[in-house]
Amino acid sequence: MTAPETCTCDTGAHAVPARRGMTRRTLLRRSARVAAAASVGGLLGPALTTHVAWADTGYTGDTLVVLSLRGGFDGMSAVAPVGDPLYASLRPTIGLPASLTTPLSSVFGLHPALAPLLPLWNAGQLAVLQAVGQPSGTRSHFQATAELEKAAPDSTLRTGWLNRVLGTRGTLTPFSGVAMGATSLPQSLVGAPATSMTSIDSFGLSVWSGYEPHFSTALSSAWGAVPSGASTQVVGALQALGTTAAMTAAGYTPANSVTYPTSPLGKALRDVARLVRNEAVRPQVVTLDYGNWDMHVGLGRPGDTGGWLHRQLGDLAACLVAFATDLGDLLGRVSLVTLSEFGRRVAENGTGGVDHGHGNAMFVLGGGIAGGKVYGGWNGLAPAALDAGDLPRTTDYRDVLGELLVKRCRVGSLSTVFPGLAYTPPGLARQA
Hints:
By secondary structure, the chain is of the alpha/beta class. The chain is built from ten helices and 15 strands. The protein starts with 5 loop residues before the first strand and ends in a 25-residue tail after the last helix.
């Protein structure tokens, strides 16, 4: 796990929060911890079998992939309002000229580093939202992240929204919820039957390899007949280990001659594609993290292809294109959405960056998306239209998630997932 990022802003130097969650003490190595398992049968481990036949969960909706852009994504650079006459004056050194962007509408242009996404946009598989945000306007990474993943403002709930999504389902497996590329669960999944792993191939027991067969057998014998939550977790862990062992032994060759970027995000999305392609374990929800978006200083000037933001956006685009190309027609059963705890200020600061703000851009990718369009209200950049210098929220991010859950992921009611939300779908998803 990389060292925590540090943000230095008007609230003082502080670390950008990493994900927190359950650990499994010494059962699994830090690169592969199982958080819980539910409704699993049989005592199977990598030493006992190379195939695991999961019970049919009955789930027929999309795999929802939640890609968290940690640190405060700059949506006004990624999807720049180059058609607004005030944009250039508010960002005189880092703002993009319209000539460098690809027009998405009369107002917005796509950052040049994101140009590889255009075929997905043109195919109607990629949509963009602008001025999306949370009801809370906090500029604290910690508070904003906690509220984002709880998604229940003004309530006493302590659970995460993905935990509540899985709670609406019937039979679940250890792969119903997966935190990929992670050593622990995000707050949105904590407490749910879910599995965290840095990768499929590294998922294993924290014992010397020569002991592993005996250790698996001992765990099965010791815990298999014990009617307790702990035994359910152990059995689920062994089931998950059997599955990943079989997947590792089989290897994986991406379809359509795809080569994924070697970045952490590229590796994680490659493994997500492996799970989606595996009918026996296809997950219902998957989370991934991509950090290092807290660009207070040195974001990069227009045309600087080696700049911080350009490099980050370029990797994001390349990874998403590889993922979509690898899945091919299977993208029709996946909905991927990007989230960030907040956006950045409208005006640039004095150090070539932008400070913590509010309204932000989101990307939604999938075969069931009514793409090729920028969604969300836009009130312009005049001082009277801003919220103390921030882009105000015109779309609640929960409305975006709610539409995907209802139309693509078979959630009948949002009252449990997003209590108190007056649901207003933006209209970007087709009914599954």
